[in-house]
Design brief:
By secondary structure, the chain is an alpha+beta fold. The protein has twelve helices and 13 strands. The protein folds into four domains: about 60 residues, 2-Layer Sandwich (Beta-Lactamase); about 120 residues, Beta-Lactamase; about 110 residues, Beta-Lactamase; about 40 residues.
Length: about 375
């Protein structure tokens, strides 16, 4: 390049006209600048920015001088930035969650379509005009302001919490907020997840559990609940008390029950449970013995029912245990008493036949006649089974 080259040799043809116009408008004072497409010796095209100044002598323009800067890296960075912005904008818009970008001044500077749906306002009404606390229930505003203040002061704070959200029409929603500072800025990105239905379900479940616990505490029966999917079992405090234990002294596992069933009763007891597990019956009832803490056996009336999923498969059993030991003892005592009586007195048919023979004799005495009349009256009420 000792003799120099014409500028058109290093410029792309599309930039010649712009280059000529820039040269002609160059002034001796100040610089002119523009962006052009340059062409390297190997034919590759790349962007440049030129700044030039006219060379003037004795009032006559002799030429121009200037510098050219390769803009390749700048353009690559700009392209990457645009792609990044498009990528994050797509994420911001299509994340499926309502999102705000909030400045340190509490103003909402950006929101996505899900946020518009949640609050009931259009983005044009929100961005740059409304603050985050415009959507917070009054009784919770101070709490959230304290959380936010600690975030900017560098102190420990919450980045995941729930609060009561107010929509445009003042409908209250339970919202889970996940907050993060945007690096190298004073702005925060806020993800807002509507958990209103989940909260209602949880509240209803809690109330149901409280009612259930009240029933359990109020009954004299032990309550058990067996989740067949997880094998988790619940035994109520009364269930364990029937066997002589405090609530914390027996673990809530299947073996707690199985290991205490009398060996002679185990097979039939398991069979009754399995009939329900396999869906052969919806409910079952079985009497068996369980070992008490003192080493004795208590008679238990076990009742259970199944819970099925949509496909009809049993996934849960629940029921009650009733201590029937006293009733069993009474039954056994009655049977023993009847047995003793049978050994003392002959069967009713034989006794009555003997009495009839005596009463029908040719010369019955008055006491026997009265006794036989009494027997006849008792027969009329089937007391002797005649």
């Amino acid at each position: 390049m000792e003799n120099g080259i014409h500028f058109t040799e290093v410029l792309h043809p599309d930039s010649h006209e712009t280059a000529y116009a820039t040269i002609q408008s160059a002034q001796p004072h100040g610089t002119m600048g523009t962006e052009l497409l340059a062409r390297s010796k190997d034919g590759s095209i790349f962007p440049i920015k030129i700044s030039m100044q006219a060379i003037v002598k004795d009032g006559k323009t002799l030429g121009v001088r200037g510098v050219a800067i390769d803009l390749t890296e700048t353009r690559d960075a700009e392209t990457a930035l645009r792609k990044s912005e498009s990528y994050y904008r797509a994420l911001f818009e299509n994340t499926g969650t309502a999102m705000f970008i909030v400045g340190r001044d509490n103003i909402i500077y950006s929101c996505n379509s899900k946020a518009e749906e949640l609050v009931g306002y259009s983005a044009s009404k929100i961005m740059g005009k409304m603050c985050w606390h415009d959507f917070v229930a009054p009784e919770e505003t101070e709490r959230l302001k304290r959380i936010r203040a600690r975030r900017f002061s560098g102190g420990p704070t919450l980045n995941d919490y729930t609060f009561t959200f107010l929509t445009r029409d003042k409908t209250r929603k339970m919202i889970r907020a996940i907050i993060q500072l945007i690096p190298e800025t004073d702005a925060t990105v806020c993800s807002l997840i509507d958990i209103t239905e989940q909260h209602r379900t949880t509240q209803a479940l809690r109330e149901s559990q409280e009612r259930y616990e009240q029933v359990v505490r109020g009954t004299n029966d032990g309550v058990w609940d067996w989740d067949l999917k997880t094998d988790n079992v619940y035994y109520s405090p009364r269930y364990k008390a029937i066997l002589g234990y405090e609530d914390h002294e027996l673990p809530n596992v299947v073996e707690t029950w199985k290991d205490r069933v009398h060996p002679e009763d185990l097979e039939i007891t398991i069979a009754r449970n399995m009939e329900c597990v396999e869906g052969k019956v919806d409910t079952f009832e079985v009497e068996y013995r369980m070992m008490h803490r003192d080493g004795t056996y208590r008679w238990i009336l076990g009742r259970g029912t199944s819970v099925k999923d949509k496909s009809g498969k049993v996934y849960r059993l629940a029921g009650t245990h009733t201590d029937i030991t006293d009733r069993k003892r009474t039954e056994q005592a009655l049977k023993a008493s009847e047995k003793r009586l049978r050994t003392i007195f002959p069967p009713p048919t034989t006794a009555c036949t003997d009495v009839r023979r005596m009463a029908d004799s040719s010369r019955p005495t008055l006491p026997w006649r009265l006794f036989w009349d009494t027997i006849r009256r008792m027969n009329s009420s089937k007391r002797f089974g005649y």
